[in-house]
Amino acid sequence: EVQLVQSGAEVKKPGESLKISCKGSGYSFTSYWIGWVRQMPGKGLEWMGIIYPGDSDTRYSPSFQGQVTISADKSISTAYLQWSSLKASDTAMYYCARERGGGYDYLDYWGQGTLVTVSS
Amino acid sequence: AIWMTQSPSLLSASTGDRVTISCRMSQGISSYLAWYQQKPGKAPELLIYAASTLQSGVPSRFSGSGSGTDFTLTISCLQSEDFATYYCQQYYSFPPNFGGGTKVEIK
Lengths: 120, 107
Description:
The structure holds two protein chains of two kinds.
Chain A: E1 3-6, E2 10-12, E3 18-25, E4 33-39, E5 45-52, E6 57-60, E7 69-73, E8 78-83, E9 92-99, E10 107-110, E11 114-118
Parallel strand pairs in A: 2-11
Antiparallel strand pairs in A: 1-3, 3-8, 4-5, 4-9, 5-6, 7-8, 9-10, 9-11
Chain B: E1 4-7, E2 10-13, E3 19-25, E4 33-38, E5 45-49, E6 53-54, E7 62-67, E8 70-75, E9 85-90, E10 102-106
Parallel strand pairs in B: 2-10
Antiparallel strand pairs in B: 1-3, 3-8, 4-5, 4-9, 5-6, 7-8, 9-10
């Protein structure tokens, strides 16, 4: 069974750094891209970026380029999304999802989400 | 980037109704379109890909149609568990963005 399990909710202050994780199981982790999707409170889905754990090839949406860093550790089947300096506007639910194809495709399995709250 | 217009943003319907949701693109995307369902407090789930192919396990009352610029998600006989928000996603060009969503609520 394909599963993506994300790390737990985080409460941070503006300016702090953060790294959240997404652990894949039940499939070949290095053979599928993993994407990240943001959902701000009460809003829709926003595609942030994607990584191929096999070789760490990474692509970012222009809206998120330079704002976050996506990485992966294939030895532990885990992808990451990180911020170096959080802002209140980063408050959102973040989902990881397995991408079906080659770098921008549909997302067939999703993690449960990680809620990030940034508040002073 | 491709602009996507999903309509309506809110749809009020009753159990047993046939409902349709539209997703229109600013340019042609062939059949590179997916539909997702998101229930409150839950992660989205894939319903349909390639515009009309049902994901494994999705009930047959869901169907998708269209190609090029105009796409439709149809729920043939709305069930109580179908009250949720639905999103389309194009994956023809980068970035593979989502439509604004359609909330299907109880009338």
